Amino acid sequence: MKEVFIGRENLLKLIGRWAKNQRVYVPVTFDIMNNPETPDYELVKEEVPDKLELHGACPAQSPKTFLFYAREVVAKYPSSDPEASVEAPATIVVGPRACDLDGLEKFDKVYWSTKHFTEEYDDPFYIEKRQNTVLVSVDCTASKETCFCTMMGGKPYVDDGFDLNISPLKSGYILTSGSDKGEKLLEGSDDLFTPVDSNHKDERSRSRASVTAAVERQNAQYAVDVAHDKHELGSNEAAWAHVTQNCVGCGACNRICPSCTCFLLVDQRAEGGYERTRNWDTCLSIGYARTGGGGNSRPNLPQRLENRIRCKLEYSRDRYGAVSCTGCGRCIDVCMGRIDMREAIKHVVTEMAKA
Amino acid sequence: MKNIYRPIESVIEDIKQESPNITTYRFRPKEPLTFAAGQFVELTAPGVGEAPFTPSSNPNVTETMEITIMDVGTVTHALTKMKVGDTVGIRGPYGNGYNMADFDGKEILIMGGGVGLAPLRSLILALFDDIDRYKKVSIRYGARTPEDVIFKDLLPEWEKMKNTEVLLTIDEPAPNWSGKVGVVTVLLDDLPLLTTVDVEGLPFSAETAVACVCGPPIMLKFVNIALLEKGFKPENIYHSMERNMSCGLGKCGHCMMGELYICKDGPVMTAAQVASFEDPF
User: Fold this and answer.
1) Per the CB < 8 Å rule, is A292 touching B51?
2) Of A22, A277, B93, B163, most Cβ neighbours within 10 A?
3) Which ipTM value was assigned to this complex?
4) Cα–Cα distance for residue pair A106/A97, rounded to 1 Å
5) CB spacing of B1 vs A311 below 8 angstroms
């Protein structure tokens, strides 16, 4: 592990050096819709954008966007070639938070079977991108109102599982390598670094503790520790109907979620034959569980929202050994019905306890 | 890396109309493609899409594969437009099959409803290949009308097999039908059970008998109740669970039921496996 300090100007230079050899995405603030608070990713072209923003909470999107495309061709047919043809250029994503790395754990389990199980269905389209992508994680220096990582057993900073981590401070950043891939990013740039001193480390510890406390404080009212208490949400029809009152089934929560892995295969005509695309899908749509003969195991919206939330908290835990909601709060941010995952959980757990 | 989404080209070799809306296709895959009774494949109608089917042919015949399809959706309808010599795609096989090693020496009750007899035919043909290993094979099949009965020409042949009986029913009375009338569960009313009455011939021992059920969800629900009432053990009742698997690989999520993937933990699941679900069918 290597740890260095870097000022803002030099960080922009360092990222510029990375961008010479590979695609680099960084979170920047956009002056659109008068809402510059939440940065989103931008591809670094000629220059590193000076609107690069590493402070604050998580970017608008999770890194699943880079590893599991919203729409991707996964097969062209007819074809007798058993090998997958995957485009997976070397990519660096600067900006994922601890909650985002937690979300990728679910992806690894579903798409990279051999990493976790000894099963035969490894997904080449995910794995090759995952292998060719370096994740430069960032400590949260503030929380959004909707952040609840601590409620899901997470923290607003990473301890492990990262390639390179950035801890933003007032005067610059601490860079910490966590893998060979991350260490490589620091090679040959010693001219940009200064040593990390104890003041830097103290500032980082204080910042981490204060953001953690802030997230805990704003979620104290929900008082449900799902990751540790192993709550069973159960299928309390009235409780789920209450939670679903304002849901329109748009599926925005599915799409923005860092751990929603579901998709639908769609075939169409293409040059030389046909192609099969893999598209993000949403379990909130009525067609999701529909079968050929017109059957549907979840015909009603409350059943579908129940399925989504229980999938995150119970089914993922039972199948993959970990709750898959990361508490990033993006589903709350994007919900036009203002459905709050935390309130939903609290309501259902409370009603179950009464029953 | 291997592309898990690529369909294997397969040529339609034969098309046989079974009923007004059910057809059996025989495919010859261009690459080796085998399956075990109960497993399913993803069948591609080129440019239209994929749908999951359990083949209806004998799994011991490996050169060709038959699938019996009801015209109900986009993919199945596209298939009705295809002709002998046309090419489709097949991926698989996926999921688990019947645990046939566990059937040795037992009575096997096969309950089919409508096109649900199609996947069971691959099991029936596999059982026939080794019929001496089983005490009895009782095939009980319900269709809506006499025209809707599939494998009309095969049923009399099956009846001639050793240790085998075939019982039929149709939902509503119809002219020229002298057989049983009523939904498929009526075929269970007089199921001879060793534990209740020792009927001459081939009684069932509810303690050990195995039931393999396939049909519309509503049928599975009521057959399940009836079999449990008859004393069948939940672990001996095998249901073919119906979900619309998009990938078949345990990834797309469409077939999830709680923490179970029907495409991996099923599609054949015992009543014991689904017992904890309020309404698994």
Assistant:
1) yes
2) B93
3) 0.91
4) 15
5) no
